[in-house]
Write a structure and sequence with these properties.
Strand content: 15-25%
CATH architecture of the domain at 2-38 and 219-297 and 439-493: 3-Layer(bba) Sandwich
CATH class of the domain at 2-38 and 219-297 and 439-493: Alpha Beta
Number of helices: 18
Shape: globular
Bound molecules: flavin-adenine dinucleotide
CATH superfamily of the domain at 2-38 and 219-297 and 439-493: FAD/NAD(P)-binding domain
Distance between the termini: 23 Å
Radius of gyration: 22 Å
CATH topology of the domain at 2-38 and 219-297 and 439-493: FAD/NAD(P)-binding domain
Structural class: alpha/beta
Largest sheet: 7 strands, mixed
């Protein structure tokens, strides 16, 4: 059997690619090395708790009132995603100064709150919103037409070459206001002096205009709904199928799996980074391609501690959906702390606050995430690994308890720790990166989009968090649609 397309990996990008190709009547096979689909977006059980691994909030989805692009695509395929729209609700504490503040509500509430604290901010923030919207529209035009007219989108041209911090300074916002608005940099994986203003603006656009939602089902259910739809359109998926080699023979792509089976296709779509593919799967790739890939920076990795607590979140004193501890509110300073093992930047997520059914009655799930901008796990030998990760988890729990005055330890019923090794083993993301390639300097979304037509390769393409639109469930998913649609359009054009 010769498939039109084989997709390697069933993460968000791979599933989207499969859906789009199957709905266009292509013969598609997804080969997935794990026994479950979803990649980083999955669920695991410990005792009476069912933990969602990474998908805590979903961007660009919205609801009936404010419909995001992701919802539009999933609605088209009648893929049901039970969600609830949530306002921002995060307590942020700067450990060095012991100062804390809460960001709660819709964008409009937050602007009013900032104006009260820092009079004169409102006009500048409104201007920021206007620019964010204009940049979003310009990006859409760029994706559709390949270029943007300066007279129609002047702010796009004004801000396109700026880093986020420079753009925010240009608007005349006070440093304190910038710092308070800047918690999002951790979700993008780059400090504001390395992140392009366009990437910052696009994230803000989704946050402000499309709002965030949380799933009211488990992540795996969400993923399986998509896989069921894919299969109902004729798509095939094989699990426990680890692709170990990809070669080209007589104009066909030949994929070999670990169990010795061979699959053939006219085209292959990889839901893994180019770095991994050219290192492990296509070993004879041209040297200049490898060189280009190696010049990019692999994003931060980290440790995730999943806690099942035997008390309700109200009894524990957890009031917010998210908590963020930072050593320093300024991202460029804070990132330096995050190059060492002993920093205090920890994100805590309490799904129960927004979804009462996240865990059984009178229990709470708390997920603690700690990110590193240096591969601190690199030199740990296998004999020290277990102790290293357990000590790290204890330090994270202690820091959370001490800095927020909330007791956790005595209520722990279940605990699981994921390290960069866990992520790498499960997804093949290099160094267990949380973000694929870092959004940084020249490697920002504009340059990725502009370079895309020149980087299209014969018979292979790349989707997912390491590809065109970078990480995030919505971005990874959309890359799967965009890249496969581009391939399909090229097929039509070339007959
Ligand atoms: C800690 C953390 C928190 C996050 N929180 C959020 C959040 O709240 N909201 C959000 O939108 N995003 C979040 N993200 C990001 C989001 O999860 C990812 O960007 C997205 O899921 C990546 O999808 P992907 O398509 O790149 O595939 P991946 O999830 O990387 O999956 C790749 C798939 O390919 C398979 N595969 C790899 N190699 C092979 C091979 N050789 N043969 C066969 N199969 C193979 C893997 O098994 C895997 O299933 C978070 C990420 C992390 C790490």
């Amino acid at each position: 059997m010769i498939y039109d397309y084989i997709v390697v990996g069933s993460g968000m990008g791979g599933i989207a690619a499969g859906l789009n190709l199957a709905s266009n009547d292509k013969k598609v096979l997804i080969l997935e090395k794990n026994s479950l689909p979803g990649g980083l977006v999955t669920t695991f059980k410990r005792g009476r708790f069912e933990f969602d691994t990474t998908l805590h909030t979903l961007a660009n989805y919205g609801d009936e009132e404010i419909t995001g692009d992701l919802k539009k695509i999933l609605d088209k395929w009648e893929i049901d995603v039970p969600t609830v729209r949530i306002p921002l609700d995060i307590e942020i504490k700067e450990v060095s100064s012991k100062k804390d503040f809460i960001i709660k509500g819709e964008a409009e509430d937050i602007i009013v709150q900032l104006e009260e604290e820092y009079p004169g901010s409102m006009e500048k923030l409104k201007k920021l919103l206007k620019i964010v919207k204009e940049i979003h529209e310009a990006l859409k035009v760029l994706l559709d037409k390949g270029k943007v007219e300066e007279n129609e989108y002047p702010n796009f041209y004004k801000f396109v070459d700026l880093m986020a911090i420079d753009g925010l300074n240009l608007l005349g916002l006070k440093r304190e206001v910038i710092n308070k608005l800047s918690f999002v940099w951790l979700n993008l994986g780059s400090p504001l002096n390395k992140l392009s203003f366009i990437d910052y603006a696009e994230y803000m656009y989704k946050l402000i205009f499309k709002k965030e939602v949380v799933l009211t089902c488990k992540s795996l259910e969400f993923v399986l709904n998509m896989i069921n739809k894919y299969q109902s359109m004729g798509g095939k998926i094989l699990y426990n199928s680890n692709v170990i080699e990809v070669t080209k023979e007589n104009n066909l792509m030949i994929l070999k799996t670990e169990d010795g089976l061979i699959y053939k296709a006219k085209e292959v779509v990889f839901d893994v980074s180019k770095r991994y593919v050219f290192k492990e799967l296509i070993k004879d790739a041209a040297k200049d391609i490898k060189k280009l890939e190696n010049a990019r920076t692999i994003g931060a990795n980290g440790v995730i501690v999943y806690l099942g607590l035997n008390k309700s979140y109200q009894e524990l004193g957890l009031k917010h959906h998210k908590y963020l501890l930072v050593d320093n509110l300024s991202s460029d300073i804070n990132v330096k702390y995050m190059m060492n093992k002993n920093h205090n930047t920890i994100m805590g997520i309490v799904p129960n606050v927004v979804n009462i059914d996240a865990s059984p009655k009178n229990t709470t799930i708390l997920v603690l995430e700690k990110m590193f901008f240096k591969d601190i796990f690199k030199n740990i030998n296998k004999y020290d690994y277990q102790k290293f990760k357990e000590d790290m988890a204890k330090e994270m729990i202690n820091s959370f308890e001490e800095n927020l005055g909330i007791d956790i330890t005595e209520y722990i019923e279940e605990i699981e720790i994921a390290t960069p090794f866990t992520i790498e083993r499960y997804t093949n993301n290099i160094n267990g990166s949380w973000f694929g390639y870092m959004r940084k300097g020249y490697d920002n979304s504009i340059n990725r989009i502009l370079a895309y037509p020149d980087e299209v390769m014969d018979k292979i393409s790349f989707v997912g968090g390491s590809s065109l639109f970078a990480s995030g469930v919505d971005n990874a998913f959309y890359s799967g649609i965009y890249v496969t649609q581009d391939k399909l359009n090229r097929e039509v054009k070339h007959g």
